[in-house]
């Protein structure tokens, strides 16, 4: 065997080992949560057995049209906007306009 | 040594096997195989790279805006076929040794991510869409979330082009993600058909959960009138409505808090029928929503729920200043 292919072979083996070793290193501390081992942060799946839907009449989830008004007070634990502040809607400007 | 076989397999011509030549070529062949193996290993071992959210980069930041959604599904091929048929999305694959991810595009713009995750029998899990909210500092948001009763599902992690992201469970257990985009947040435009237009959080106690999200994202909160006794609260930032917080329907105990994202469609009835034809199913039949357009809730073939929403822009209101 001539010296050139031998040298190429050794370099190739070295590169292969180095690359494999680098591939085994987990950067940034790995992953937490219940899905340890899943390599993408976001790979969450919901538990089964729950029902979706069941929206009866008058059940609204959509955005307002921007013509309503906020409540004068809130029964909730959040800080509500006052009645002088109009309830906003979604953006209406189209792309390219 | 040269061998001359007495018989031949091709047209009666003799086939000469030159073993000396083969022996001479062994090192070169070995080199080629090893170089190929190195190349393949390098590709497989490459770090998982997500593309930037905004390309070209945006200088805008909209804390609290829903800026991304990831579908986590066990069957990437079926999911691609379904969403491509329904919304015309195309896909760009990002594969590494242990991650199958695809970016869904609409007219060349990224609209969603598809992450393939095997769900083992007995795992008691189902596919879902994960909602990403914009933040400036993921680690600061994590500290605030923990202070206000949330739990960490996935620790913060950085992706060089995409940014830093983490996944939390809010105090009621609804799962959401936060993302500090390295390329800025997408500008505030009206969603085109096929793009996400709205998000809703369905929980047992909208008041308490709205307070949690207000603490994290600084939302302005508005409560809309309801004629069924169920809460409908709007979270807004930059003078735009970003999401709603709704009471979960009370008809069943098998309800759990969750985020829902809605894609804008031209015709909700047609889109729902198309979803069924493509292997999905309807969870809530099309009906007129508060904004005047029709809304429906469907599930993709793997069971991940998402909404369909019409939005007519012919009667849009005054642009917020």
| Ends apart, CA distance between termini of chain A | 70 Å
Overall CATH class of chain B: Alpha Beta
Count of separate structural domains of chain B: 1
Mean pLDDT of chain A: 66
Strand order of the largest sheet of chain B: 4-5-6-3-8-11-10-9
Distance between the termini of chain B: 88 Å
Please give the share of residues in helix of chain B: 10-25%
Count of individual helical segments of chain B: 5
* Uncertain residue ranges of chain B: 1-14, 315-321
Q: What fold name goes in the CATH topology slot of chain B?
A: 2,3-Dihydroxybiphenyl 1,2-Dioxygenase, domain 1
Rg on CA atoms of chain A, Å: 29 Å
What is the CATH superfamily classification of chain B? 2,3-Dihydroxybiphenyl 1,2-Dioxygenase, domain 1
Descriptive account of the structure:
The complex is a heterodimer of chains A (97) and B (321). With 97 residues, chain A is an all-alpha fold. In chain A, 23% of the residues lie in helices and 2% in strands. Chain A is built from one helix and one strand, in the order αβ. Chain A starts with a helix and ends in a 50-residue tail after the last strand. Chain B has 321 residues and is an alpha+beta fold. Chain B has a single domain (66-310), classed as 2,3-Dihydroxybiphenyl 1,2-Dioxygenase, domain 1, CATH 3.10.180.10. In chain B, strands 4-5-6-3-8-11-10-9 form an eight-stranded mixed β-sheet, covered by helices on one side. Chain B has an eight-stranded mixed β-sheet with strand order 13-14-15-12-16-19-18-17, with helices on one face. Chain B is globular and about 90 Å long. Chain B starts with a strand and ends in an 11-residue tail after the last strand. β1 of chain A pairs antiparallel with β7 of chain B.
């Amino acid at each position: 065997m001539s010296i050139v292919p031998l040298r190429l072979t050794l370099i190739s083996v070295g590169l292969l080992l180095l690359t494999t070793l680098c591939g085994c290193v987990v950067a940034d501390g790995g992953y937490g949560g219940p899905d340890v081992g899943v390599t993408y942060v976001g790979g969450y799946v919901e538990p089964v057995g729950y029902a979706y839907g069941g929206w009866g009449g008058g059940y609204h989830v959509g955005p307002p049209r921007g013509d309503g008004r906020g409540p004068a007070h809130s029964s909730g634990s959040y800080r509500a906007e006052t009645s002088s502040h109009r309830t906003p809607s979604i953006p209406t400007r189209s792309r390219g306009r | 040594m040269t061998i001359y076989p007495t018989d031949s397999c091709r047209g009666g011509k003799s086939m000469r096997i030159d073993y000396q030549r083969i022996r001479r070529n062994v090192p070169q062949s070995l080199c080629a195989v090893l170089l190929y193996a190195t190349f393949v290993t390098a590709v497989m071992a490459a770090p998982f790279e997500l593309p930037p959210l905004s390309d070209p980069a945006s200088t805008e930041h909209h804390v609290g805006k829903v800026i991304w959604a990831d579908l986590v599904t066990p069957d990437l091929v079926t999911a691609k076929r379904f969403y491509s048929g329904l919304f015309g999305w195309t896909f760009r694959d990002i594969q590494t040794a242990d991650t199958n991810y695809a970016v869904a595009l609409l007219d060349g713009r990224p609209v969603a991510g598809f992450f393939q995750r095997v769900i083992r029998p007995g795992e008691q899990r189902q596919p879902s869409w994960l909602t990403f909210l914009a933040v400036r500092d993921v680690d600061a948001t994590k500290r605030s979330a923990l202070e206000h009763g949330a739990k960490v599902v996935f620790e913060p992690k950085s992706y060089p082009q995409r940014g830093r992201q983490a996944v939390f469970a809010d105090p009621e257990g609804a799962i959401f993600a936060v993302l500090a985009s390295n390329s800025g947040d997408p500008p505030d435009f009206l969603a085109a058909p096929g793009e996400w237009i709205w998000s809703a959080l369905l929980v047992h106690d909208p008041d308490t959960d709205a307070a949690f999200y207000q603490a994290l994202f600084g939302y302005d909160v508005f409560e809309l009138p309801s004629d069924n006794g169920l809460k409908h609260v709007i979270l807004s930032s930059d003078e735009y409505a970003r999401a709603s917080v709704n009471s979960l329907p009370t008809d069943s105990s098998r309800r759990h808090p969750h985020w829902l994202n809605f894609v804008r469609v031209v015709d909700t009835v047609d889109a729902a029928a198309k979803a069924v034809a493509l292997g999905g199913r309807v969870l809530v039949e099309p009906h007129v929503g508060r904004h005047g357009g029709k809304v429906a809730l469907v599930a993709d073939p793997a069971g991940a729920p998402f909404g369909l929403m019409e939005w007519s822009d012919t009667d849009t209101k005054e642009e917020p200043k």
